[in-house]
Amino acid sequence: MTGTARYLPIGDYALIGDMRTCALISREGSIDWACFPRFDSPSLFARILDHDVGGHFSIRPVGEFRSAQQYEEGTNVLSTRFEQDRARLELLDFMPLDARRSAKGLAEVHRRLEATGADVEIELRFRPRFDYGRRTARIRRRTHGLLSTDGDDESLALSTSIPLRWEIDPERGEATCRFVLPRGRREWLVLRYDDDEVWPAEQYRSRERLRQTRTAWLDWSSGLRYEGAYRGMVERSALLLKLLIYEPSGAIVAAPTTSLPEEIGGERNWDYRFSWLRDSTFTLFSLYALGKFRELDRYMDYLKRVCRKESDFLQIMYGVGGELRLEERVLEHLEGYRGSAPVRIGNGAAEQIQTDVYGEVLDSIHIWRRKHSMTEGMWELVVRLADWVSENWRRPDSGPWEVRTEPRHFVFSKLMCWVALDRAVRAVEEEGTGPESEGRPVSAAKPAVDVRRWREEREAIRADILEHGWNEEIGAFVQAYGTTDLDAANLVIPIVRFLPADDPRVVSTVERIRAPLEQGGLTHAGSGLVYRYRSADGVADGEAGEGTFCVNTFQLAQVLALQGRIDEAVRVFESVLERASPTGLLAEEIDPATGEQLGNYPQAYSHIGLINAAHVISRLRRDVEPTDALLPENGES
Description:
This protein is an alpha+beta fold. Helices cover 30% and strands 20% of the residues.
């Protein structure tokens, strides 16, 4: 194969991980993306970004085959099955979740091969490429497998449970072999990062650790507090969300990949291996609705840490360890997925001012308060953030889509500033205030707050949005003041309770967004999927096109449900589900014409949108009896 035909569709990959890092495995049995030891570390395998240069670890039958993937129910253990005439080969992949993993802190991938029906001839190709393919590995034979090093300080060991005759090509930094796996036999291969020894396969205790890992995932998924519709997809989304948690800090990465394009051949190729504050509100809603309070608390701990960092303003994203600097660079030596250059690492949008993040953080605290009393440290954070919004909400910013143009007055940004002050005021009102000095909480050690000013500025923001954000001519809330452009981000207006879902202006905005693209709306006529925005120039920042956005389509379904239009909500919701990957995963976007996944994959925000929409649809449709789970109060997040 040549050119773009060498690349599999993005949806032909599934993810395994250990809540520190992960690996993308194709339906053809190849690890084509892995960054060890953290999500944001330089890659060891990156064939998904460059077929020749990126590196991979492939296991497949020799000759033609059919293949399919699925997860073991309730787990993130992945099975890839190959079929050849009478022969069957199952490849089982997992990354361990156990005490040994935690103690050593070393990333491992365990791969089990099993032949049934007939003997299977198998081909292995092992080609690690350190530092995003910039360093060719030196591969050496060892008694129990292979050891690859980068000539500096990185190493990757491959242990096999059977002796193999490897052929090593030192120029390509590749080792290959073929062997016959007898029918009924099981064999193991184990990858271990940052170990300069290749131990006998039995020392990795793969069978025992598979059992422990299965148990860990099943224990977690069985504790999901969700009995509504679409239980299988909600569970898969929850398991994906858990996979993307960086366990040492509680951060959740937006996606485990970088530079998978929003349009094939386009330039919208960004690094998503960081934690976005914008996602926090909807993430905490999901965790609360699922009854996953430990993860909610851990994520809130991460939010508190990064929000207290010394800075003139909140960044929109931070590293998984709370890092501030995420310097953006272009990797010129990689061609990009199907030729979609540039390939970027780091993200320059971290330096943008986006005022909406204050609303997302304060709304997150609002959700967190349902299970906790306010602490002194949390009060200090609320006061600092609310005071900043009171001073700065009038300034233009870069908007929710991180457009790299001049700042503007985005309606979504103003909306979330309103949310910030609304939630801060509600915290004071609901926690109680002293009679002597309004705004001073009764509890000791809580700081004084200027709640009168917060109320005044909250009402000023509301008036500003209703005057400048609503465009009577087109009958919709627009993207930015002084424009006629639509923006699907405004679907959250009823979700955050700025206006009721049945307010005529909300209803009209929804109908304008639902109109086909050809009629000035944001919806693809043939699929029902929603684009995030369109402007007179096609897109807001003048760059190439993109696909429809999963999270915006889910938000549309959620708003329709809040309006009582359940059947329509279900149709919109299912229009995304039917385009999920065979393993139930979603990227950021979908090509509405082909159904192909686009953008970084799998994306947490898409799956958060799925969980939230399913929750609201199920509750309003009364699929289950109401419990103490989070219920929508007129669209409450």
